[in-house]
């Protein structure tokens, strides 16, 4: 483990850097070449947040949940299901007809979407009608599809 920098260490590093700048003009560029090496060193900033503060980051649990939702949406059939359910609630056989895939495949994808909290099913007699939990996720899917179409 490294101890804290002392003023002496910082001063020595600064002297070495200034000597390098003074003896090697390639380290000086643009308008800084008109300034003294000491001034160029003082004016230069490596602070990536100098122009704007960092964006707030949600708690790790929230980020993990968002990742789970995005993974649940990361299959073409599931994207198509969300687009269908965006229009109206549908039962499995309607999704089979609209998407042209088998019933077991639709059911498997619906299980993934249901587990991720994207869709919910409501039994209506022998059928289960599926609907989106809310519109937020359909906006993500629509935007992703639009972005992909833009190329």
Note down, in words, how this protein is organized.
This protein has 151 residues and is mainly alpha-helical. It is built from 7 helices and 3 strands. A 3-stranded antiparallel beta sheet has the order 1-3-2. The longest helix has 17 residues, at 7-23. The radius of gyration is 29 Å and the shape is elongated. The two termini are 49 Å apart. Mean pLDDT is 81; it is low at 26-34.
- Tell me the span between the first and last alpha carbons: 49 Å
Overall morphology: elongated
Helix and strand sequence: HHHHEHHEEH
Q: Could you list the spans in which at least 5 consecutive residues all have pLDDT below 50?
A: 26-34
Structural class: mainly alpha
Mean pLDDT: 81
Q: What oligomeric assembly is this protein in?
A: single chain
Computed CA radius of gyration, to the nearest angstrom = 29 Å
- Secondary structure: number of strands: 3
Helix content: 55-70%
Biggest sheet: strand arrangement: 1-3-2
Summarize the biggest pleated sheet. Answer: 3 strands, antiparallel
**How many H/I helical runs?**
7
Beta-strand level of the residues, as a percent range?
5-15%
Sum this structure up briefly:
With 151 residues, the protein is mainly α. It has helices at 7-23, 37-43, 60-72, 76-87, 92-99, 103-115, 136-150; strands spanning 90-91, 119-124, 127-132. A three-stranded antiparallel β-sheet has the order 1-3-2.
Question: What are its keywords?
Answer:
mainly alpha, 151 residues
What layout of secondary structure does this protein have?
Layout: H1 7-23, H2 37-43, H3 60-72, H4 76-87, E1 90-91, H5 92-99, H6 103-115, E2 119-124, E3 127-132, H7 136-150
Antiparallel strand pairs: 1-3, 2-3
Helix pairs in contact: 4-7
